[in-house]
Structure formats: structure tokens, C-alpha cells
Amino acid sequence: MLSALDLGDASIRRLALAEFVGSFNVLMPVLALFYVHRGLRVDEVVSLILAWVITSLLSEVLTGAFADRFGSRASFLAGSIVGGLQFVALYFARGFWTFAFASALGALGFSFFSGSDQAYVYDRMQSAGRQQEFGRVWGRVQSAKIVPAIAASLLGAFLARGLSESSFVLLLAVGFAGSVLKAWLILGLEDSTAVGEAKEHLTIWGTVRTGWKQVLGSRPLMWLFLHETLLLVPTHVMLSDYNVAQPLLIESGLAVAMLGPLYTAMSLCSLAAFTWGAALLRRLGEKTFLLSTAAAMLGVWISWLGERTALSLLAGMLVLKFLLFARLVACSQLKNDLIASGSRATTLSFLATADSAFDIVLLGSLGLTARQGYDPIFYGCAVVSAFGIACGAWYLYSLKGAHRWAEPSCGT
Length: 412
Prior knowledge:
Elements: H1 10-22, H2 31-37, H3 42-70, H4 72-92, H5 96-113, H6 116-127, H7 134-143, H8 146-159, H9 165-187, H10 204-217, H11 219-232, H12 236-239, H13 245-251, H14 259-284, H15 286-303, H16 310-337, H17 344-369, H18 374-398
Helix pairs in contact: 1-9, 3-4, 3-5, 3-10, 3-17, 4-5, 4-9, 6-17, 7-14, 7-16, 10-17, 11-16, 11-18, 14-15, 14-16, 15-16, 15-18, 17-18
């Protein structure tokens, strides 16, 4: 299936296949139940996200610099190995701190891919003179994760239906085997060479300094990051694993049995967005795409103020899901056009670290408003989104006279 797609070259197809295999995580749909089965309280389960966030904040930049200095293949291999060790740690985990250690391993493994995979694909496309097609190719690489994730959700829930220790051990074994297969696929990758850059003389800390200077030295990149992040963070309220959507939908009259079809439909929306996001950017142009999609997302938050029905919530969530992932594809293209090769993974990791900081501050603030009901949450989401639109306008203004490392793939 993946070989039939135009993904740039054989190495990008192999990376997409590795991502395909890695997304088949049969433990994920019952992970919280596994924690409870092993004796964790519900509040401890929720607190495990802190281990993930703190590890991400500490490791994102260094793992990005590792990829820029030693190559993407080494970074992906390290991430796959650490990801496999997470399943081993989960097998032996019994108390909160051992589960927190396993969560930290998962975050570290993810960090070795975060930013580095995007940089790898862009550099491969750039070396072939096809960087304008990055958004389309990156969307297809990301879409490779959707189908196995849906299948894993169905299979994992079926295998663990009895919530027995043996069933959870089976899921852990499948997850570990997937990590081993993913590592084997990555060994076959051809490492990218940054265009026009000789990286051998750089240390990791030198790469970090170069990436930091790129972030601070590019005003359009900073405004684009703020625009993307301020539209992204509010969606976690309804679309992330820790959301208010499920209780709100049940209170609005939706049957619990309908949650499964809803999340399947949302996965299909993600697949459509990954497939068509780059095409929408090219067809509408940079200005129209960014501002119209941002305005539509703001409109969803406003529509949920006051009276809400199950139908309006379902429709809004599907719209948010599609727009969110279409914008992720488009903004990935636009950000990479503004970043020089040689420290691309480090620069993207700096931005991911800043995004995590925004997550903590903004989601923490929105969480405090939850005590007053749902309306204050949606008011807060609308205000944050409005600031995001303003940052998008400033980004478009700051492009005048700005230097891009690649020609824009769309009109402005």
C-alpha cells in the first residue's frame, strides 16, 4: 500500500512503513485500565501525564540536536529502542513511580522522533529539489499512522476484554515486538545529508546554539509558531486523551455506545486532512488558508456557548479535527521553508518545547475555569484562538522582505 504512494523516495517510504508499524499499539486503548489493574488510583493515572510532559521539556531540544549531529537514522533507532524498553518497564511496573519511569521512557522515545522525522523528510525532499511538495508528502507519511491506530484500538479492546493479567501481558508483548520490527525497518534507512551543510565539525551544544539563533532570528517563524500553537492548544480540551468531551457528550444525550463510532469518524477526518491539507494550502494560498481555517475554528468555540446539543458537539468536534490536522500539515511546510538545513531538527525541537510550555500554562488556566462549568472553558478557548488569529495576521505582515530558505509552495 505504502509503496504505491508517491512519498518522495525509498527511504521516506521505509520511514512511513516504520511509522505504520509503530502506530499499531494494541495497549493504548486500554492503557488506563492497565494502570488501574496494576493498583494505581485514578488521580495517579492522571498524574502520569506530568512525567511525560516534564521528560519532553527536558529532552526535546537535546534529542533534536542529537539527530542533527549524528543523523536521523541514529535518532530514530534510539527512539525505537527506548520505546521498546517502555514496554519492558511496564511489564515490571507495580507502583506509581515505576509507572512514571515507564511514562518517561515513552516520552523520551517519542522525542527522538519529534521534529527529527519532519526534518528528515524535508531534507530528503530538498536534496531532490522537491521541497515545495513537502506538505503533501509529510501528510501522507502521517496518514500512515491512522489505519493501524484504528485497527489496534479495536483489537486491543477485544483482547483485553476480560481485564486479566495474561491479556495485558499479551498486549505488552505485541507492543515490544512492534518496537523491534520498527527498529529493524529504520536500520534500512539512508541517512539524510543536510543541503549545503557539513555537520561533522559541530558538537551537540553547537547545534543547539545554532537552532536557538534560528528561532530568535526569524520573526516570521516566531509569529507562525504562535499562530499555530494558540489555535492548537484549545483543541486539547475536546480532542486530547484528557478532555471534557466525553462527559459533556453523555450529559447532552449521546449514548456511550456511540463514542466508538465517533472516534473512528474523527480518525477518518484526520486521514482526510493529512491527505488534502497540502492541496488546500496550494489552492487557497497562504493568507486565505491560515486565516479562514483559524476563523472557522474560532466559530466552533463560539457556537458551543450557551445551549449545546449532542449533534452540535459532534459536528463541531469533527470540524475541529479536520481543520486541526490540515493546519498541522500546512504549518509544517511553512515552518520548514523558514528554517535552514543543518539544525532543522534542533530548531523544530525548540518549537516543540515551547509548545509544551504553552500547553502547561494555557491548559492549566483553562482547567481552573472548569469549576465554573463548560461555558467559561469555551469562552477561554475562543479568546486564545482570537489571539492566535492576530498572530497569524502579524506573521503574514512580517513576511514582507523576510528570507525563506525555500521558495513558498503556495501563493500568499
